[in-house]
Design a protein that fits this description.
The structure holds 2 protein chains of 2 kinds. By secondary structure, chain A is mainly α. Helix content of chain A is 77%, strand content 0%. In chain A, helix 2 (25-50) crosses helix 3 and helix 7 (145-171) runs antiparallel to helix 9. Classes of the chains: A mainly alpha, B mainly alpha. The A-B interface holds A 24, 26-27, 30-31, 33-34, 37-38, 41-42, 44-45, 47-49, 51-53, 56-57, 176, 178, 180-182, 184-185, 187-188, 191-192, 195, 199-201, 204 and B 26, 28-30, 32-33, 35-39, 42, 45-46, 48-52, 54-55, 174-176, 179-180, 182-183, 186-187, 189-190, 195-196, 200-202, 205.
Chain lengths: 264, 266
């Protein structure tokens, strides 16, 4: 694998998709307003939960805000990279254009996962970061090197898990053809990532850590921010992320064996 | 006059039949759509697990019925007309529809109704599982309430269908009307009562929210069906009022839009 070649190709991807997306400038503005409103809405919902209670699942309001910030950042990443690319797989398979991707002298998973980019997601990531900075201030978190590395590691693990979940579902299109709605199901499940895991009942907590590891995605990085995290949890997240990444790769190669192009 | 209405009924009936058989082809899809609507149950879990309902004076049982009903109302008032219309208009499929002596929105309307009929058994299965986990919340609403809540759910569907159709007509001016719909979906999500009953909202929101269409989309029908306290005549009146406001607006924007429409190639 030639890293320099891939970097060069990625630069081209960025250039072409940015150029085409910037054609719809008002669209980006509307998306920005949507992102802000949905953050305001979730904070409103959170404030309803907290209006007569000091704690939800052992989290204070200020602490729960960190989860919102991390969720917003991750949602921005999903909207920038995962959503535009991985919904495209469905189209490739239905229309048989996956053939053209497979014929290219480049890794097909790389091509399919990074071809497109949606710039309005960047703004959402920025909003998430602003909220995160605000949270760091109101929770009086001391920034030091070990804390920064730990939070970086956990957030990157979350991104890997999130990517793998999206990629799994999109890949299953090879068998089911229309997985549009499976993506909708994933989206609605991911929504619970906006709330601390401890606020759910025991059975749901098990479900969301074992079957769909949404629990790891937002709660563990937030715990790192608050200095509440235990080492085994971070290690566990790291292991889960690695396992997910490797299986997603294996699953793609396995699924390709079953792909029959449009006319065959 | 009777002949005209007969003809009209036959059209609607045929459309429904065609769309229903079309929808039956995609049963798995629709099952997945039904599953993607289970957010209210997660919310219920947060409410009861943290005893949040004590502060708003709703018992556990009534709250779980409320969220179950919210799930049902949402299932039968989901609207996606803007996405269908946007695709059809970008692909140039609207042109043949415009020639037909029937407003193309009737086609989408029939599509939605057919989808709801297909969805019904899946929603029942999900409700069945809900009752297995929460046996204490089983109840049978009386016939009058059931009929009234079906009517109000349908009215809620009509309001959302009209709002989205108005947004869909913006396709005549801009290419991506669906992003406006995604924007409008956010207040619908948070203010309609899908995630938290409107009773629990802080006073500064409650003071104006009943003037907007949002609480009548899910909160009002769900309260009605679950037997929670609600103002029946006021709610139905507001639903009808909103439909009366939106219908002429839709007609206006539709006639403006079709004048503006240029078919592909012209």
């Amino acid at each position: 694998m030639n890293l320099r070649k891939y970097l060069k190709v990625y630069k081209k991807f960025l250039h072409t998709s940015l150029a085409s997306e910037l054609e719809y400038k008002t669209n980006i503005l509307v998306d920005l307003i949507t992102a802000i409103l949905s953050l305001v809405g979730s904070i409103f919902l959170l404030s309803i939960f907290f209006q007569n209670n000091g704690y939800i699942g052992g989290w204070k309001f200020e602490q729960a805000l960190i989860i919102q910030a991390i969720y917003t950042i991750l949602n921005g990443i999903t909207n920038t990279w995962f959503n535009p690319n991985l919904t495209e797989i469905v189209k490739h398979i239905r229309e048989g254009t996956l053939d053209f991707v497979l014929l290219k002298p480049i890794d097909s998973q790389f091509f399919i996962s990074l071809k497109k980019i949606n710039p309005s997601g960047f703004l959402e990531i920025m909003i998430g970061f602003l909220l995160l900075l605000f949270c760091i201030r109101i929770n009086q978190i001391n920034l030091n090197l070990s804390f920064l590395t730990l939070s970086l590691i956990t957030i990157s693990c979350s991104i890997c898990i999130l990517y793998s979940l999206w990629f799994f579902i999109s890949t299953s299109t090879i068998w089911f053809v229309k997985t549009w709605n499976a993506i909708e199901v994933l989206r609605s499940f991911l929504y619970i990532g906006r709330f601390p895991l401890n606020s759910f009942s025991f059975s749901l907590r098990i479900f969301f850590s074992v079957f769909i590891p949404i629990a790891f995605i937002t709660t563990i990085p937030s715990e790192v921010f608050l200095g509440l995290s235990v080492l085994w949890k971070i290690l566990l997240e790291f292991i889960v992320a690695t396992v997910f990444l490797i299986t997603s790769r294996k699953f793609w190669l396995f699924a390709l064996k079953f792909y029959s192009s449009a006319s065959s | 006059m009777i002949m005209i209405s007969n003809l009209f009924n036959r059209k609607i009936f045929t459309l429904l039949k065609v769309q229903y058989s079309n929808m039956l082809e995609y049963r798995v899809e629709i099952a997945l759509w039904a599953i993607s609507g289970i957010i209210p149950f997660f919310m219920l879990n947060i409410w009861t697990n943290n005893n949040l309902n004590e502060s708003i004076n709703i018992s556990d049982v009534l709250l779980s019925r409320y969220f179950l009903c919210a799930f049902f109302v949402r299932q039968f008032s989901v609207v996606w007309v803007v996405f269908s219309f946007e695709e059809d208009s970008l692909m140039g499929r609207v042109s043949p529809y415009l020639i037909q002596p029937l407003n193309p929105f009737f086609r989408y309307f029939a599509q939605h109704l057919a989808e709801q009929i297909t969805r019904f058994p899946f929603a029942l299965i999900i409700a069945f599982f809900f009752f297995i986990f929460n046996p204490e919340s089983i109840w049978i609403p009386n016939l009058g309430t059931l009929l009234l809540s079906i009517v109000s759910t349908f009215l809620s569907f009509l309001i959302q269908f009209l709002i989205q159709s108005i947004v869909a007509c913006l396709c005549f001016w801009t290419e991506k009307a669906s992003s406006i719909e995604r924007l409008l979906f956010i207040p619908t999500l948070f203010l309609s009562g899908l995630l938290a009953p409107v009773v629990s909202f802080p006073a500064y929101v409650k003071s104006w929210i009943y003037l907007t269409p949002f609480p009548y989309l899910i909160d009002f029908p769900a309260n009605l069906l679950s037997g929670n306290e609600t103002n029946i005549s006021g709610g139905l009146g507001m639903q009808i009022l909103w439909i009366c406001l939106l219908l002429p607006l839709f007609k206006k924007i539709w006639s403006e839009g079709t004048k503006k429409y240029t078919a592909m190639g012209s």
